[in-house]
């Protein structure tokens, strides 16, 4: 409160101006005993701050309620528009026009979540603008994108003012990236990395957020940003990522014959637990392609790697080392043949939060996966301790490595596995026998052709050396008595007679 001397000076100034001052009018309106300031609506400085804070919080809460209500109305309108559009048949030209409009339209679902309006007229205009039909009603929104957006809004509520700043920065970044579609993927990657760095520095320096909360906030920012940007930056047409994917996939298919023994993999799939771990590792590395966020893709790689370590530990009864892990990871990649492997690696490299990619177990496992893919691309006979001839025969499919003999299996192996190995051995033998028969048949055919050609040539040489001359046909010999005219008068021929003695 003012001192008695201060009150006297204030009364004195008021009397000079001809104004009568009541002492009760100078007190704070809240009744705290302090003198109020007319510029602060009759409150003292302390009470005015409290009242301003309460009004601010009330305004923020009203904005949140308005945003939620608008989003519900938008979802209902979107559902009704979808049902209406389903009943209509669009021509191809209308479909193309709609697709073009969706690509070029700037979508704003809810505006100014956190900005409180100081004037009632401005607030009323804002409400009227928000109630207007949003162009996002007609867009083909992804369910996952909407879910991630809601989760992001719920998350930044807990950060109060830093959350407001995060949201504004994210919206600004998305709007900026929508106008930079023509940039190369490397330039877009640099923009994303700069954005991550700026947001992290802003939270640490300006808002003094603890490091663990900064890391959590950056994970949510990455999830929100990359879920919306996924279809534009994953395997874009301006890169050769798809070509590399096909090359790696073809290479892995050609290496289907590689066995764990060739790679020195310390994993025994005969153990049921180990076999389950191998299946889970393959499932995780394949599941990586279904994720949109780089952090989620890294999580799949990490889960796959942990299953590999568990499989090695169960097999060897001791902790696994890095020398054991990398060959096993190569074997898992060869056996699983993950889809779009190179595209996923490039996407993580370009748009993952650098703090996560450069440090921690996620970055370590991702580095090993890159090494495994590079090893597969350069795999040769020397890497597998094979001769070049055997390696070429395996690659061309002329033969395959010998499988494990059924007699060497442990008693615990099921009969189905033994029967399968016997069938594989029999098929391998039949394949070798068929190849031998085909080879001998081709050789016999060649010998027959050579023999026929030789005989034909010998006959031609003989005919050429001793040509065959065909003489005209000679006349038939006449009978002895043909010139005797009186042959009709000849006596009959003598007949032998037998006389009885």
TrEMBL record:
Cite the A20-type domain residue spans from the record: 22-56
SMART domains, alphabetically? Answer: VPS9 (SM00167), ZnF_A20 (SM00259)
The terms describing its cellular component in GO are: cytosol; early endosome; endocytic vesicle; recycling endosome
GO: which molecular function terms?
DNA binding; guanyl-nucleotide exchange factor activity; small GTPase binding; zinc ion binding
> Where does it reside?
Cytoplasm; Early endosome; Recycling endosome
Query: Which PROSITE patterns does the UniProt record give?
Result: VPS9, ZF_A20
The record ties this protein, via Gene3D superfamilies, to: 1.10.246.120, 1.20.5.4770, VPS9 domain (1.20.1050.80)
- Output compositional bias ranges, type Polar residues: 79-90
What are the BP-aspect GO terms?
endocytosis; protein transport
The protein's predominant localisation is cytoplasm
Report domain VPS9 positions. Answer: 242-385
> Keyword Iron-sulfur, does the record have it?
no
Enumerate the residue ranges of region (Disordered): 75-94, 482-501
What does the UniProt keyword field contain?
Acetylation, Cytoplasm, Endocytosis, Endosome, Metal-binding, Phosphoprotein, Protein transport, Transport, Ubl conjugation, Ubl conjugation pathway, Zinc, Zinc-finger
Q: Name one Pfam family in it.
A: DUF5601
Read off the PANTHER family from this record.
Answer: RAB GDP/GTP EXCHANGE FACTOR, RAB5 GDP_GTP EXCHANGE FACTOR
List the protein's name: Rab5 GDP/GTP exchange factor
Q: Which organism is it from?
A: Sylvia atricapilla
Record gene name: Rabgef1
């Amino acid at each position: 409160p003012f001192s008695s001397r201060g009150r006297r000076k204030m009364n004195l100034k008021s009397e000079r101006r001809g104004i009568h001052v009541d002492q009760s009018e100078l007190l704070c309106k809240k009744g705290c005993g302090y003198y109020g300031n007319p510029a602060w609506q009759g409150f003292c400085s302390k009470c005015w701050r409290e009242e301003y804070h309460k009004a601010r919080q009330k305004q923020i809460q009203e904005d949140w309620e308005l945003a939620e209500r608008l989003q519900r109305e938008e979802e209902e309108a979107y559902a009704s528009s979808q049902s209406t559009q389903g009943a209509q048949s669009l021509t191809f030209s209308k479909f193309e026009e709609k697709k073009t409009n969706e690509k070029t339209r700037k979508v704003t679902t809810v505006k100014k979540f956190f900005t409180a309006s100081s004037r009632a007229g401005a607030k009323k205009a804002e409400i009227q603008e928000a109630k207007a039909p949003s162009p996002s009603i007609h867009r083909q929104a992804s369910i996952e994108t909407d879910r991630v957006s809601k989760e992001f809004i719920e998350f930044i509520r807990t950060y109060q003012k830093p959350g407001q700043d995060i949201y504004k920065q994210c919206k600004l970044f998305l709007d900026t990236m929508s106008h930079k579609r023509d940039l190369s993927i490397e330039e877009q990657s640099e923009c994303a990395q700069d954005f991550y760095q700026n947001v992290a520095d802003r939270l640490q320096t300006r808002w003094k957020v603890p490091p663990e909360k900064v890391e959590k906030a950056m994970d949510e920012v990455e999830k929100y940003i990359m879920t919306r940007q996924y279809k534009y930056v994953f395997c874009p047409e301006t890169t050769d990522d798809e070509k590399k994917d096909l090359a790696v996939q073809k290479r892995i298919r050609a290496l289907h014959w590689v066995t764990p023994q060739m790679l020195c993999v310390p994993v025994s799939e005969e153990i049921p637990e180990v076999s389950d771990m191998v299946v889970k590792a393959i499932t995780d590395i394949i599941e990586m392609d279904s994720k949109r966020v780089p952090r989620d893709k890294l999580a799949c790689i990490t889960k796959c790697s942990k299953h590999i370590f568990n499989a090695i530990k169960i097999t060897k009864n001791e902790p696994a080392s890095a020398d054991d892990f990398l060959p096993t990871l190569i074997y898992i990649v060869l056996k699983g043949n993950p889809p779009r492997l190179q595209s996923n690696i490039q996407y993580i490299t370009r748009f993952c939060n650098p703090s996560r990619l450069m440090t921690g177990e996620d970055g370590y496992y991702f580095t090993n996966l890159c090494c495994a893919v590079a090893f597969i691309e350069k795999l040769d006979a020397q890497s597998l301790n094979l001769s070049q001839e055997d390696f070429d025969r395996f690659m061309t499919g002329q033969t395959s490595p010998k499988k494990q003999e059924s007699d060497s299996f442990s008693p615990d192996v099921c009969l189905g596995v033994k029967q399968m190995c016997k069938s594989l051995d029999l098929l391998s033998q039949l394949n070798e026998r068929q190849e031998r028969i085909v080879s001998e048949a081709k050789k016999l055919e060649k010998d027959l052709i050579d023999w026929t050609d030789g005989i034909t040539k010998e006959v031609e040489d003989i005919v050429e050396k001793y040509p065959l001359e065909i003489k005209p046909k000679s006349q038939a010999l006449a009978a002895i008595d043909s010139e005797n005219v009186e042959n009709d008068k000849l006596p009959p021929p003598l007949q032998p007679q037998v006389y009885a003695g």
